Amino acid sequence: MQENYMQFPKTAANYVPLSPVSFLSRAEALHGARTAVIYGDIKRSWTDMASRVRLVASGLMSAGIGKGDTVSVLCPNIPELFELHFALPLTGGVINTLNTRLEPETIAYILDHADSKLVIVDRELIPLLTRAFEALGREIPVIEITDPNQPTTHTLGGSTYEDLLERGHPVGTIGLPDDEWDAIALNYTSGTSGRPKGVVYHHRGAYLMALGTVAAWKKPHYPVYLSVVPMFHCNGWGHPWVIAMLGGTMVFTRTPTPDLILDAIRQHGVTHFGAAPIVLQMLAEAETGETAAFEPPIKVLTAGAPPPPSVLEKTRSMGLDVMQVYGLTETYGHISKCLWQESWGDLDAREQAELQAQQGIALPMVEAVSVIDSETGQPVRRDGETQGEIGVRGNTVMKGYYKDPEATAKAFENGWFWSGDAAVVHADGYMQIRDRLKDVIISGGENISSVEVEAALYRHPSVQAAAVVAMPHEKWGEVPCAFVELRSGAQTSADEIIAFCRGHLAGFKAPKAVVFQNLPKTSTGKIQKFQLREAAKSMST
User: Closest Cα to residue 39, out of 143, 150, 124, 162?
Assistant: First the structure.
């Protein structure tokens, strides 16, 4: 390398650590008078928001919170949690958003494992936190949030969020980290197969995630974004930081029920939101067809599981422009998208929905998302049939698992983050998940995708939810077994379900047994297939 290219040192003029907290200064300077927050009767501008963030950050620092300190937050999606996504990084601390649907024992485990120095809790959730402290065997200092839209008498007698605002003092600028590799957030996996793992995000990744989301979603300035994705899911997929960058408005409902979501969309002119497929299904079922479709269509990202094509058909007719994205906790959320192709416009609604259910192509801030053959270490053929594991490489991959170097090393083997998801790649380069690797059913030497079978089941009018796992079989080794949760009041039989699937799938892919029951789910709504696999092991056909 030429020596003269090495003579330029980094300076304050040409090198600034990347951090999403810088977006707040931008919002205040450029969009100060615009509305940042709408929640019930509460409406605040970006000037108000920035002032509150600085006061909260100052109050936290006076309480002893500094660089590298973990602060856990047990709170639904309300303005205070939005503010903390800026205030806590400003202190140098690390925000750990706790899943409000978890049982006390798991919350206790996370608080202990995360080395939480402080818990900020919404008062309605104090009973849950109290039980978690009992399971933990000790208490952690607490700051309580009082939500005027959800009055409650619960209290631990500690200081309040308002106290932070009162004892804080304005600071002139939004502080950036000394090093963009510093931790900004600690998120825990859903724990479907054991104890949840702590996933560490850095400032650089969070900043680039926000930029990549804007580019991938073609998001304009001043969006009106409805906060549906829980902020305990990958920090709301990074969308709180996106809204600040664009000077948009964040609309809150606290509880993401279909009626509140639909009312907020109509009342506030919502333009964008993100939601899991189950939320889209609830919205589709809540609409009676008597109301006109949203116009212009509302931009929606969905992720968490491949959405059944039937759900995409329904939401499209409602005026929801849904784009499937794919990602994991370890990748800050979405890292690929199913970008609409013009050629799909000539297809019928069902064909369009099936294509929209693909996981698509990498987002622009990701270096590579590749489906890799485990035997050769090379990308699989683009034939829609050859299966491999999704590997990810880029700046929006976690730093690692907190206090778990062995799991971190395993996840990063050979220079990739290994997702555990089995997928194929189509001729157009679009990726499609076939299964979690442990959920692939190998029957008589044929690979059967449980996702494909589940998509067929969801088309049956009586099926509310479905999961397919392997069941032992004397001749074929294993065959598909369907666990089905019926809609309220619906009636059907196993034979009818199997016959229905045979009408939509190759015969060997159809379930060989059907079990009707309420499906076990995690606190985030994911079906706990490991329980169903254990149940299926005791069955045979």
Answer: 150
Q: Please, what's the largest Cα pairwise distance for the chain?
A: 77
> What's the rounded Cα separation, in Å, for the pair 2 and 4?
6
Residue 87 CA to its chain's centroid (Å): 22
- With a CB cutoff of 8 Å and minimum separation 6, the contacts of 208 are 18, 365, 395, 396
Distance CA 193, CA 191 (A): 5
Residues across the chain: 541
User: pLDDT averaged over the chain?
Assistant: 91
Query: For 160, phi and psi rounded to 5 degrees?
Result: -115, 165
E strands, 26-115, where?
Answer: 35-39, 42-45, 70-74, 94-97
pLDDT digits (tens, 9 = 90+) for 326-362: 999 999 999 999 999 989 989 988 888 888 888 999 9
Evaluate the omega torsion of the peptide bond into residue 296 and state whether it is cis, within 30 degrees of 0: yes
Tokens of 178: 């000394």
| 25 neighbors 173 (Cβ within 8 angstroms) | yes
pTM: 0.84
Helices (H), 63-125: 79-91, 104-113
In the three-class reduction of DSSP (H, G, I as helix; E, B as strand; rest coil), residue 148 is classed as: coil
* For the chain, percent of residues with pLDDT exceeding 70: 94
**For residue range 277-328, what is the model confidence (pLDDT) as tens digits?**
878 888 988 865 556 789 999 999 998 666 777 788 889 899 999 999 999 9
Helix axes 309-318, 349-356, angle to 10 degrees: 110
Residue 191 has pLDDT above 60, yes or no: no
- Laid out side by side, the sheet with 513-516 consists of 463-473, 477-486, 513-516
Q: What's the rounded Cα separation, in Å, for the pair 135 and 250?
A: 35
What single letter denotes the amino acid at residue 36?
A
Strands (E) located in 110-240: 116-122, 142-145, 159-160, 183-188, 198-202, 224-226
| Domain architecture of the chain: domains with CATH | 43-201 (3.40.50.12780), 276-436 (3.40.50.12780), 440-537 (3.30.300.30)
Please list, in sequence order, all residues whose beta carbon lies within 8 angstroms of the beta carbon of residue 164, skipping any fewer than 6 positions away: 55, 56, 59, 60, 63, 143
Helix (H) or strand (E) holding 123, with range, is none
The tokens describing 402, both together, are: 């907190």
HEC profile for 401-465? ECCCHHHHHHHCHHHCEEEEEEEEECCCCCEEEEEEHHHCEEECCEEECHHHHHHHHHCCCCEEE
pLDDT above 50 for 192: no
Decide if 248 contacts 223 (C-beta within 8 A): yes
Encoding tokens for residue 501?
């699937």
Are 531 and 520 within 8 A, CB to CB?
A: yes
What is the DSSP secondary-structure string of 263-308?
HHHHHHT--EEEE-HHHHHHHHHH--S-SPPPSSPEEEEE-SSPPP
Tokens representing 320? 């929801």
Q: Is 166 helix (H, G, I), strand (E, B) or coil?
A: helix
